[in-house]
Amino acid sequence: MLMDGTAAAKRIVDQAAADTAALKADGVTPCLATVLVGSDPASVTYVRMKQNRSAKAGIGSWHVELPEAITTRTLVAALTELSQDPDVHGILLQHPVPPHIDERAAFEAIAPEKDVDGVTMHSFAAMAFGEPGFVSATPGGILRLLDEYEVDLAGKHAVVVGRSPILGKPVGMMLLARDATVTYCHSRTADLASYTRQADILVAAVGKPKFITGDAIKPGAVVIDAGYNPGNIGDVDFAGAVDKASLITPVPGGVGPMTIAVLLEQTVAAAKMAQRRL
Ligand SMILES: Nc1nc(=O)c2c([nH]1)NC[C@@H]1CN(c3ccc(C(=O)N[C@@H](CCC(=O)O)C(=O)O)cc3)C=[N+]21
Fold first, then answer.
1. Do domains 26-111 and 137-256 have the same CATH topology?
2. Global ipTM
3. Residue 60 Cα to ligand 1 middle (Å)
4. Ligand 1 centroid to 27 CA: how many Å?
5. 163 is in an annotated binding site
6. CATH H superfamily, domain 137-256
């Protein structure tokens, strides 16, 4: 059975829109600032999708575009300014930034209370320690989708393929917090399929098109494809996996829309918290 991320995301965004309308009636318009460095076409598309989805929910968006050649210092200054701007409730710095920029330093310039994309050390640590905070958007979306389909995680073997700071690593920690037994695999894992074949829940987050083939999947597994490769091709070979999996996310229409939904939901939550502080 397919896990319909588009439908689940719509429910989350509809709720965010209703909450936004209530906040606006109280005089507060939730506002998400998106920051894009350079003009990579895929990143331009993703940021535009986030803005469009925000606008549809009534959330304001403020877009900052910076040239490819910007320094870390200038990017940090721009993010610090947004962090201090009372009209901005959430900040998204689109990953990846050009290689000459210290991406970690840039992420850390986002104030924790505005880190609606869950990319800072503060947010990661809060998540890892089970304290309140914003979660990384894609992992958050994945957990919401698993809940939507009532996938029982306790005691299940979850195998995460990928260990990136805003996707693989945090999704494993979130599954662990839900009592799954978690195995991390990555590009240096020897005999990867011997691990993935033991996965009750398989999360593919490596960024290699169709990297996970049907023969690497345990019959009945829940397969989450978090890959976003050029041309909307996932990390899972869907045709080979669909008959083996009990539940599987399509690409597009799976994890992608859930990522944006969680981003918007957390933006509205940030605006509510800012209002309470007034
Ligand atoms: N700081 C940061 N946070 C992110 O969350 C982040 C990021 N950087 N960098 C890039 C990746 C990628 N990403 C996607 C979000 C939505 C879709 C999505 O909704 N895709 C549609 C298809 C899109 C289309 O039709 O073109 C779908 O899967 O149905 C895809 C990819 C967020 N990312």
1. yes
2. 0.93
3. 19
4. 31
5. yes
6. NAD(P)-binding Rossmann-like Domain (3.40.50.720)
